[in-house]
Amino acid sequence: MNKHNTKISKENVPFIGVAGIVIKNGKVLLCRRKGNHGGGTWAPPGGRLEYGEEFEDAVKRELEEEVGIKVKGLRFASVTNNIFRKEGRHSITLFFTCRIKSGTPRIMEPDKCEAIGWFEWKRLPKPLFVPVQRLLEQGFRP
Predict the structure, then answer these.
(1) How many whole angstroms from its chain centre is CA 13?
(2) Which partner from 23, 26, 79, 142 sits 20 to 30 angstroms from 7, CA to CA?
(3) What is the SS3 assignment for 137?
């Protein structure tokens, strides 16, 4: 049991996500999510950390899988604690900044992403995925 009188199980342990804030010409790459978790919201490409995986390797893998690019210059940027009460989900997202090493961003997983684009940090599209909202609340700027 935890302090919320909830029995701890695999289902109610927060999952760890990673996201790559790809920077090019003063803009960041965002994807409009598709599906039941954050569908219709904008976020940097990313996904779940797999068991035994290093954070940076997870970011590289996710960006290649989601938008078809290889990245370089990864730097830890921030971490957010994200509670999705309506969905009964909880995640921790590790954000890394990076640059494109090779490839051109394109939608590689159309079941997870319906649009991609480059945006100025001061003019991000709405609505934003909860972890990105938390990042802005921290005052983060790439």
Answers:
(1) 18
(2) 79
(3) helix
